């Protein structure tokens, strides 16, 4: 077997049983056929569940996602065998990974991992997850379909022409201001004579198919589409990452391909881009709405690193007849571009009166500008039993905060160093705690492993979006074993489920997701998980 999967081989053949520590299930298949092999995997103390969600539909991605791990603790990510990994492919919209047991996260010493997701037909998405406790931490990566915008935004397409790397027919492209709900627009100008080069370093030639996806109206949909999230910091030209909350007043993705379908990524001399920003945009330097001639920061999104980069600033001009200001700047490369600020953070405490709601809660916080438009947002899960959370990276420039906890919304003005109190409505009388017995199948008497690491079960009521889902992790405490240490079954308890309702359960293990529907008939239900794990693990 490959040494990547076998850390040690311990013991000997006892009663026909061979114990193998840290062994990959597929690599051990030959041994399964000859011995009663038991895989002794180390239980992972700190786990992360990642939801990959379509920003337009709020549903899990069906496409395969390549997940990469970067940031402060990207090198400390491990797979289910406790082996270090830098990437993992996942299918079904849910992925998971662990953190080395040698690291113990805490509020004062958190672990930070930047999760970067790439899928065919989607822009690169990323999220920086901050882990402050062992157990399970959840995060969401929103994915945006290429060359498409979301509700409140606008898009446009045009065709230019290049020959031998030189633009022969100019591209003058702008979205229509009437397409966006706040009457804003974005534009790109590629003049004749510009030298255009593909991502492979070749001279662009043929028709230059150019598209703009503009995310302008400060709505929930556009805030979800903001790649990389708002809390990952900004990389300076020196390479140093400045940790600061990012706010945006508008962002755009520009793509150009040549006649052979090659992506055009660089231009000489630089080309001109423009982004309209609302007149209600707050300038953190003044604490007032933006004015003509004031500077707004320009940032570009690095697809490879999953992080925003500082590209200087632009002086805004306006307002125009719709009350918007235009930020115009030059660039020699294409990316997703944002006009906004990297400002100062302040803490906001959120207290939740549960009023009988005992399960995990989903909380979304949004920073609002002078007119109530969204300029920053963040989501997190509040575990069962918790009634308070502190948002440490809230932008100090916000006029107010909107907090939604499981659909109950509260807005508070001047939120910095303040407290937001959210009171939830009492749950329906039919809400109960449910213990699910894990059934590995009618022909499977046991599993050839001592534990199941990073095995999570995501759940949501039928009709709810992926953003309203919760997750539990199956730990060794949830499992039962026989005298040889093999897993014979297990159970997990999920609080606060509605009796009589249908729930969708999605089990995630080793990059694969299995989904099933169950009606909540009572406090004890058997959950068929026979398709979740590798069949070679089964002792028939």
Distance between the termini: 24 Å
Q: Can you give the mean pLDDT?
A: 87
Q: CATH fold name of the largest domain, please?
A: Chondroitinase Ac, Chain A, domain 3
CATH architecture of the largest domain: Sandwich
Radius of gyration: 26 Å
- Which class of the largest domain in CATH terms? Mainly Beta
Instruction: Give the overall silhouette.
Output: globular
Number of strands: 44
Percent of residues in helices? under 10%
Major sheet description: 14 strands, mixed
Total of DSSP H or I helical runs spanning 4+ residues: 2
Indicate the low-confidence ranges by residue numbers.
1-23, 27-34
Q: How many individual domains?
A: 5
Structural class: mainly beta
Q: Beta-strand percentage?
A: over 45%
Structure description:
With 540 residues, the protein is mainly beta. The protein has five domains: 1-40, no CATH class; 46-143, Immunoglobulin-like (Sandwich); 154-342, Chondroitinase Ac, Chain A, domain 3, CATH 2.60.220; 345-423; 430-539, Immunoglobulin-like. Helices cover 2% and strands 52% of the residues. The protein has two helices and 44 strands. A hairpin with a 5-residue loop joins strand 29 (361-368) and strand 30. The chain starts with 7 loop residues before the first strand and ends with a strand. Mean pLDDT is 87; it is low at 1-23 and 27-34.
């Amino acid at each position: 077997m490959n040494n990547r999967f076998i850390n040690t081989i311990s013991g000997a053949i006892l009663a026909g049983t061979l114990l193998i520590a840290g062994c990959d299930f597929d690599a051990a298949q030959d041994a399964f056929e000859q011995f009663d092999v038991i895989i002794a995997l180390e239980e992972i103390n700190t786990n992360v569940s990642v939801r990959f969600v379509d920003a337009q539909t709020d549903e899990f991605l069906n496409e395969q996602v390549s997940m990469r791990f970067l940031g402060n603790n990207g090198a400390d990510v491990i797979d289910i065998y406790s082996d270090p990994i830098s990437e993992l492919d996942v299918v079904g919209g849910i992925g998971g990974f662990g953190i080395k047991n040698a690291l113990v996260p805490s509020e004062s010493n958190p672990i930070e991992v930047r999760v970067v997701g790439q899928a065919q037909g989607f822009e690169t998405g990323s999220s920086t997850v901050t882990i402050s406790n062992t157990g399970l931490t959840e995060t969401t990566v929103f994915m945006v379909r290429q060359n498409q915008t979301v509700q409140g935004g606008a898009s446009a397409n045009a065709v230019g022409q290049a020959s031998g790397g030189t633009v022969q027919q100019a591209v003058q492209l702008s979205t229509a201001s009437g397409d966006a709900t706040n009457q804003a627009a974005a534009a790109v100008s590629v003049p004749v004579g510009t030298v255009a080069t593909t991502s492979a370093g070749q001279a662009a030639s043929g028709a230059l198919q150019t598209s703009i996806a503009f995310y302008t109206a400060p709505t929930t949909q556009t805030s979800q589409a903001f790649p990389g999230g708002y809390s990952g910091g900004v990389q300076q030209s020196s390479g140093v990452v400045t940790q600061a909350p990012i706010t945006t007043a508008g962002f755009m993705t520009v793509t150009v391909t040549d006649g052979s379908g090659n992506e055009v990524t660089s231009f000489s001399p630089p080309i001109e881009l423009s982004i309209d920003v609302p007149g209600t945009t707050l300038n953190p330097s003044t604490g007032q709405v933006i004015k003509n001639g004031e500077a707004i920061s320009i940032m570009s999104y690095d697809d490879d690193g999953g992080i925003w980069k500082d590209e200087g600033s632009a002086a805004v001009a306006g307002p125009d007849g719709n009350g918007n200001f235009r930020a115009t700047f030059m660039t020699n490369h294409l990316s997703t571009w944002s006009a906004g600020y990297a400002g100062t953070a302040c803490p906001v405490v959120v207290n939740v009166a549960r009023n009988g709601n005992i399960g995990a809660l989903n909380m979304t916080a949004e920073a609002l500008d002078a007119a109530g438009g969204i300029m920053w947002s963040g989501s997190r899960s509040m575990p069962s039993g918790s009634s308070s959370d502190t948002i440490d990276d809230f932008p100090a420039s916000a006029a107010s905060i909107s907090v939604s906890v499981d659909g109950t919304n509260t807005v508070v003005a001047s939120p910095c160093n303040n407290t937001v109190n959210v009171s939830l409505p009492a749950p329906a009388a039919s809400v109960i705690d449910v213990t699910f017995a894990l059934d590995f199948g009618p022909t499977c008497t046991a599993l050839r492993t001592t534990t199941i690491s990073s095995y999570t079960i995501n759940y949501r009521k039928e009709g709810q979006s992926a953003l309203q889902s919760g997750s539990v992790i199956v730990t060794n405490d949830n499992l039962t074993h026989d005298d040889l240490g093999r897993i014979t079954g297990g159970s997990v308890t999920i609080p606060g489920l509605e009796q009589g309702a249908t729930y969708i359960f999605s089990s995630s293990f080793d990059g694969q997701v299995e989904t099933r529907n169950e009606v909540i008939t009572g406090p004890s239900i058997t959950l068929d998980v026979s398709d979740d794990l590798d069949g070679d693990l089964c002792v028939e």
